[in-house]
Design brief:
Order of helices and strands: HHHH
Structural class: mainly alpha
Helix content: over 70%
Radius of gyration: 26 Å
CATH topology: 434 Repressor (Amino-terminal Domain)
Shape: rod-shaped
Number of domains: 1
CATH superfamily: lambda repressor-like DNA-binding domains
Strand content: under 5%
CATH architecture: Orthogonal Bundle
Number of helices: 4
Number of strands: 0
């Protein structure tokens, strides 16, 4: 289960997600001062925030997986293009070898 109980852990999680306080506040629908107060230990992180953070984490992970799949597809297309571009050269080299034999 996803559990952030204090400001130090929240801050570490936020940094892992590459979010600043303003971005996290926007995602959670709270004021930036609220995030700041949680992280400084001035106020407790409400338990229901864990559900929102879990959703954010899951959504970001799905996006990362999707981006990786897209990158793999593009790399595969580039590889196929390179093979296709090199094919005439290979055919010419094979013809030259056959003539030389």
């Amino acid at each position: 289960m996803f559990s952030i109980e204090d400001g130090v852990t929240l801050r570490a999680w936020r940094k892992e997600q590459f979010l600043n306080q303003t971005q996290l506040a926007t995602l959670l629908g709270v004021h930036i001062n609220t995030v700041h107060n949680w992280e400084q230990g001035n106020t407790r992180v409400p338990a229901h925030i864990n559900l929102a953070l879990e959703q954010i984490t899951g959504h970001r992970e799905r996006l990362v997986r999707k981006l990786r799949r897209e990158q793999e597809k593009l790399a595969h297309k580039r590889h196929l293009k390179e093979i296709a571009q090199g094919l005439p050269e290979r055919k010419a080299a094979l013809k030259a070898q056959k003539k030389a034999s």
